[in-house]
Design goal:
Blueprint (H helix, E strand, L loop, with lengths): L2 E5 L2 E3 L5 E8 L8 E6 L6 E6 L5 E3 L7 E6 L4 E6 L8 E7 L2 E2 L3 E5 L2
Parallel strand pairs: 2-11
Antiparallel strand pairs: 1-3, 3-8, 4-5, 4-9, 5-6, 7-8, 9-10, 9-11
Length: 111
């Protein structure tokens, strides 16, 4: 059974940084592509970033250059480093592996 647990969200001022973590179990993590999604109030869930098993990354245009997705196969964990945060980044952030979702972690960017 796939189990994904996100952490690291919180309240941060505009321009600040946060690092999200997603610990995975029940999968062969090193062979798994992983993704981060987010859902803002009243909006559809959107893809933020993905990372392949080989470490190739992709980002939605709105976060490219500010966010970095990475992985630690020894810890079965995928990260999302978020810098230069903007109020429009406020959302619940979810980890994803092949249709399986974590519970999400709230990120609020506000002064």
């Amino acid at each position: 059974q796939v189990h994904l647990v996100e952490s690291g969200g919180g309240l941060v001022q505009p321009g600040g940084s946060l690092r999200l973590s997603c610990a995975a179990s029940g999968i062969i993590f090193r062979l798994s592509a992983m993704g981060w999604y987010r859902q803002a109030p009243g909006k559809q869930r959107e893809l933020v970033a993905t990372i392949t098993s080989g470490g190739s990354t992709n980002y939605v245009d709105s976060v490219r250059g500010r966010f970095t997705i990475s992985r630690d196969n020894a810890k079965n964990t995928v990260y999302l480093q978020m810098n230069s945060l903007k109020p429009e980044d406020t959302a619940v952030y979810y980890c994803n592996k092949g249709g399986n979702w974590g519970q999400g972690t709230q990120v609020t960017v506000s002064s």
